[in-house]
From TrEMBL:
Organism, as annotated: Candidatus Kaiserbacteria bacterium RIFCSPHIGHO2_01_FULL_46_22
Annotated keywords: Membrane, Transmembrane, Transmembrane helix
Top-rank taxon, per record: Bacteria
Protein name (database record): DUF202 domain-containing protein
Residue stretches spanning the membrane: 28-47, 59-80
Length: 108
């Protein structure tokens, strides 16, 4: 019986670490989505109000849109990478639930 308790405690500790990783990657998904939305919004505002910004030259516009494009690509990369990690962590948690029926009942 003592071995089962130790094994269950170890399994619970592993699940705690996995859940902490899951929270981290969920926050990275939020960050990636925020980067994409803010860069797209800035790009849209610059496109729609370009006539009101006479001091912005063609070269400035190219540089600004390049920075915004790389920001969007970085946000999408962060979003997709974190989403893949979330799927992998969820699979690990599901396999840990199958190992122990008590833990399966604990996880909602």
């Amino acid at each position: 019986m003592a071995i089962d308790v130790k094994e269950e405690q170890l399994l619970l500790a592993e699940i705690q670490v996995l859940l902490a990783e899951l929270r981290t990657h969920l926050s990275l998904v939020r960050t990636g989505a925020g980067i994409v939305v803010s860069a797209a919004t800035l790009g849209f505002l610059l496109l729609s109000n370009g006539a009101y910004l006479p001091f912005v030259t063609e070269m400035h516009t190219t540089v600004i849109y390049s920075i915004l494009l790389f920001s969007v690509l970085g946000g999408v990369y962060l979003f997709v990478r974190s989403e893949r990690k979330i799927l992998a962590i969820t699979g690990l948690i599901r396999s840990a639930e199958k190992k122990n029926k008590r833990i399966d009942k604990l996880m909602v």
